[in-house]
Amino acid sequence: MTSKHTQKTEQQYSQPLAQKALSFETVLALLPWIPAGPVLDLGTGAGQWATALADYGFEVTAVDADPEKIAVLNSREPHIHWLAADIRSEIWSQSRYAALLCLNLFPFLPKSEHLTQLKRIKSALRPGGLLIFSGFSDQDPGANLNMASSQTGEPMPTGTLSLEELRQIFAGWEPWLEYVGPLADDHPPHGAHQHGVVQVIYKKPETALAAIDWQKLPELGAGLGWRHALAELLEQESVADFIEIMSDDFLDPQWDRFLLALSQRYTVIPHGVELSVGSLGGADLAYLEQIARIVARCNSPWWSDHLCYTQTSRYKTWSLNPLPCTEEAHDWVVKNAKQAMQVVGKPLLLENPAYYWRPELPNQFSDVEFLSRVAQNADCGILLDVANLFGNAHNLGIDPYAFIEALPGERVIQIHLAGGRLHQNLLFDTHDQAVHSETWKLLEHTLKHCGIKAISLERDDHYEDLQALVNEVALARQLMGVRS
Ligand SMILES: [Fe+2]
Ligand SMILES: [Fe+2]
């Protein structure tokens, strides 16, 4: 069976997962799709899977019944939580693990115990978690024979499983791999030989996004947009309370390991530009799945993009284009935003972009009415860029104070601060200057009217004076504190 995920992995690795047995490489290719959280390896054996997962950056618990083997592994890789235990004992927590590996352990369990243990495995995974499982099928040469274990000489149950049994137990889970066939093996005393195996990768369903309680979103404080030029600065944790990343720069799974490490140090908020929430014809599902992967990896409390369109049915425009403030545009945005939140599974904030022109259509709403109606009807939040508001006030004559006062304050969750440049009497959102004094005033006014949880500085160039940037983050933090 080929899933959307399998197709992506095929593109990347040119190997159809569903037509070959699970390999070490298969599991490595899966790592970017494992959401944030601990990983459990049941029947770790020589420990190579647990070690690879821990090297990648996951918190790993690995279990094996052989205490001597576990002692050796523990001395070699002390950063992994090695447990000498029978998997039938109470060693795992329910609904906790982001991934659970159980590879060819079930042949060592009597068939009569399979169902109980599979049900425990099922409940051990958290929503969105991945099960990576391999067992012996009735095609295994030793199936249902009372074979002696190659390691201990003890009789071995060799209980087998069928794909149908696994499908029944994990009904409703998303299949990413189902394989029934031969598996090459090579170990003493048999040397090279073949097993018959049944293998699956199943994803536990996500819990549906419930009605969002905006007040309960976490207070993140004052943060900074991650840029290469700021990487060293952000090693000092006192500089920023959280990090905003440009999600479009991290769509390739090659960045996953970096995101895993970053999100273990900071709350990470993905901020994108290619959602194109105002496009007619719906959102790009493949894009949303990549955003969902990043949000799940970072366990981000929310994510954001812009109230604009960046794509037509034929072209990417490579710019954030203003929408007409009409019923029709509102309806498209609401539909697209709802779909986006369903796929990504976390609250979406929409940002007011900087405008330099307006569509020549009769507007039915003002800018702020349009943004507010979208937020209410799509049940999304607002990322208020006060620098964009300052620029739009300059460029288009909007009253920025009236704009702030007309916003639904409980929905304005995050603020952007940045400095722009004046060129031919237009103020451009260049993110390369100090924050303008008028923008700071707009921030203070916003803090009086809105329940802000986070303020982030955006800086894309001119990094000569990093201390000045640090001071701006500190001032934003102070102003948030003054409010409370
Ligand atoms: Fe933005
Ligand atoms: Fe912004």
Describe the structure.
- Helix content is 32%, strand content 24%.
- The protein is an alpha/beta fold and 484 residues long.
- The chain folds into two domains: 4-203, Vaccinia Virus protein VP39 (Rossmann fold); 214-483, TIM Barrel.
- An eight-stranded parallel sheet has the order 12-11-10-21-18-17-16-13. It has a seven-stranded mixed sheet with strand order 3-2-1-4-5-9-8.
- Helix 5 (114-124) links the parallel strand 4 and strand 5.
- Helix 11 (386-396) crosses helix 13 (437-449) and helix 12 packs parallel to helix 13 (437-449).
- It is elongated, with a radius of gyration of 26 Å.
- The model is unreliable at 1-17 (pLDDT under 50).
Task: Write a brief structural summary.
The chain is an alpha/beta fold and 484 residues long.
Cα end-to-end separation: 54 Å
Domain module count: 2
Quickly give the CATH architecture of the largest domain.
Answer: Alpha-Beta Barrel
CATH fold topology of the largest domain: TIM Barrel
CATH class of the largest domain: Alpha Beta
Poorly predicted tracts of residues? 1-17
Q: CATH superfamily membership of the largest domain, which one?
A: Divalent-metal-dependent TIM barrel enzymes
Please report the total strand number as a whole number. Answer: 21
Largest sheet: 8 strands, parallel
- Attached small molecules: fe (ii) ion
Work out the helicity level: 25-40%
Mean pLDDT: 89
Strand content: 15-25%
List the total number of helices. 14
* Overall spatial form: elongated
Q: Write down the Rg.
A: 26 Å
